[in-house]
Amino acid sequence: MTTVSISELKANLSRYVREVRRGGEVQVLDRGKPVARLVPPAAEDNRGVRERLISQGLLRAGKGGAGAILNEPPVVLPVSVSEALAADRDDRL
Asked: What's this model's pTM, rounded to 2 decimal places?
């Protein structure tokens, strides 16, 4: 959650409204004390974050079937990651 003073909010209102539109929250302070909070409307909250991001074009829905990947065993590498990194760094010297 972003926290701003009233004067900062007035000076950059569009920026903070964009932040709230994207699902964020903005707490407003008056002389260092919280007096208000800007949050998305309740109707937006009921739609779900995923659906809202899809409708805004910020997220593409998957085609499904990704769960099968989780059933596969992990990939076994011939060397450890730290050895491969060390070898890569040695090549640069």
From this structure: 0.46
